Each structure stands twice: as structure tokens, then as C-alpha cells.
Amino acid sequence: MRYVNMLFAALMALFAFVQLNDPDGYVWFFIYLIPGIIAALAAFRLPVLATAKGLGAVVGLTVLSLVGVVAYWPTTPGFWHQEVWWETETAREGMGMMIVAIVMIAVLCTVWSARRHDSAADHA
């Protein structure tokens, strides 16, 4: 999962910086950057996230990302088609929130697995 989280961290950073030319780019910059930082922590500093506070933060951010998916769900028919999301900002934003949720779910699975592994090692 380390490489998956590294890839997600890089993608989120790229997505964040691409947003800076958008009218509401600073909002989306942070929507992408924060999961990118969390994914980088999962890749390089997993013990920080495997603490109780770290897990709580990851769970909270994952829930927020899922709320964001619901809030930004695209209402444009066929939003997944390139000709639609290329032209429709709301379709891109909705798909962006879906990507953020996928990243956060992957990080949550990584942290959960690390905690289970540590817990099993403590009981052995």
C-alpha cells in the first residue's frame, strides 16, 4: 500500500496545483492538498496516522470526503463522458470529490491494517 499511497499523494498534489488557475481554485487546492498530505503520511510516516488521534483524523476526513461526494454529486446526465466533464464544471467537481473519497478510503484501509497488525503483534 505504500506505493499506492505515494501515487495518490503525487496525484493529489498535482490536482491541487492545477486548480490554482480556477476562480474557486483556492478552495479546491485545499480539498486536494489535504488528502495528498494524508496519503504522503500513510506512505512515509504511517505510525503517526496509526495512533488513536491519527486514526480519528483519518476517519473524520474520510467521512467529510463522503459528505463531499454527496454534496457535489454531478446532476449532469452522462457526467462521466469526456465531452460532458470537459465542458461542465460541476461534473468535474463531483468527480474530483469521488477521487478524494477513494484516496481517503485507501488511506483509511492502510491505517486500519497497520493498527490491526500492531495490535496482533502486541498480543503475540
Structural class: mainly alpha
User: How many domains in all?
Assistant: 1
Q: Report the principal-axis shape.
A: elongated
Strand percentage lies at under 5%
Please compute the radius of gyration using only Cα atoms. Answer: 16 Å
Q: What is the H/E order?
A: HHHHHH
Q: How far is the first residue's CA from the last residue's CA?
A: 24 Å
Instruction: Point out poorly predicted stretches.
Output: none
Give the number of DSSP strands.
Answer: 0
Return the average pLDDT rounded to an integer: 90
Report the total helices: 6
- Oligomeric category: single chain
Largest sheet: none
Percentage of residues in helical conformation: over 70%
Question: Which helices and strands, and how do they pair?
Answer:
Layout: H1 2-18, H2 25-44, H3 46-49, H4 52-72, H5 82-85, H6 89-123
Describe this protein with a few key phrases.
mainly alpha; about 80% helix; about 120 residues; elongated
Structure, described:
The chain is an all-alpha fold and 124 residues long. The protein has one domain (2-123). Helix content is 81%, strand content 0%. The protein has helices spanning 2-18, 25-44, 46-49, 52-72, 82-85, 89-123. The two termini are 24 Å apart. The model has no long low-confidence stretch (mean pLDDT 90).
Outline:
The protein has helices at 2-18, 25-44, 46-49, 52-72, 82-85, 89-123. By secondary structure, it is mainly alpha-helical. It is elongated and about 50 Å long.
